[in-house]
């Protein structure tokens, strides 16, 4: 491909990614949470399912600053979706857990998202679903390669 064709295809790709972003596939419009707060809540649910989670654990997983994490955790705590408690092993460490309200919302969101994904598989069919999975995996490999060369760069 020449540079003009690459640029044209990149513009189409950017437009398609923007459309996907705007759909907020996993976002439930009936919640009082922003998309980023839902993302935090889902990550907390995933990580805390296996072990106690700290704000530092979340910051590392999301690759953002601890101060940004603290801001979002405060918002989620104020809305009743999480609680923060001192670690029984080390009182200097804060543990983050989902509240009952948070667990209910996560269960609802996961069920809704799963239903949407199953619907997408039905819509695309087996061959297109497999091809999309292959392409998304390849895209992830490319992004990880970029990040390994320059950790601050991404798509």
Describe the structure.
With 155 residues, the protein is mainly alpha-helical. The chain has one domain (3-149): Orthogonal Bundle (Arc Repressor Mutant, subunit A), CATH 1.10.10. Helices cover 68% and strands 6% of the residues. The protein has five helices and two strands; from the N terminus they run H-H-H-H-E-E-H. The protein has a two-stranded antiparallel ribbon. The longest helix is centred in the C-terminal third of the chain and has 50 residues, at 100-149. The chain is globular and about 60 Å long. The protein starts with a helix and ends in a 6-residue tail after the last helix. The model has no long low-confidence stretch (mean pLDDT 87).
Keywords summarizing the entry:
single chain; mainly alpha; Arc Repressor Mutant, subunit A; 6% strand
Biggest sheet statistics: 2 strands, antiparallel
Give, in spatial order, the strands making up the sheet with the most strands: 1-2
Fraction of helical residues: 55-70%
Which value, in Å, is the CA radius of gyration?
19 Å
Series of secondary-structure elements, N-terminal to C-terminal: HHHHEEH
The total tally of domains equals 1
Distance between the termini: 21 Å
Give the CATH H-level superfamily. Answer: Winged helix-like DNA-binding domain superfamily/Winged helix DNA-binding domain
H/I helix tally: 5
């Amino acid at each position: 491909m020449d540079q003009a064709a690459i640029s044209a295809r990149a513009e189409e790709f950017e437009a398609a990614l923007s459309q996907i972003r705007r759909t907020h596939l996993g976002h439930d419009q009936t919640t009082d949470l922003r998309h980023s707060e839902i993302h935090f809540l889902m990550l907390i649910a995933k990580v805390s399912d296996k072990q106690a989670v700290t704000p530092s654990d979340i910051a590392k997983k999301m690759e953002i600053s601890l101060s940004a994490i603290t801001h979002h955790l405060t918002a989620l705590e104020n809305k009743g979706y999480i609680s923060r408690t001192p670690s029984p092993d080390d009182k200097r460490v804060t543990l983050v857990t989902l509240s009952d309200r948070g667990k209910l919302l996560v269960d609802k969101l996961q069920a809704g998202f799963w239903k949407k994904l199953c619907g997408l598989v039905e819509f695309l069919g087996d061959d297109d679903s497999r091809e999309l999975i292959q392409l998304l995996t390849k895209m992830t490999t490319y992004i990880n390669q970029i990040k390994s060369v320059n950790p601050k760069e991404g798509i």
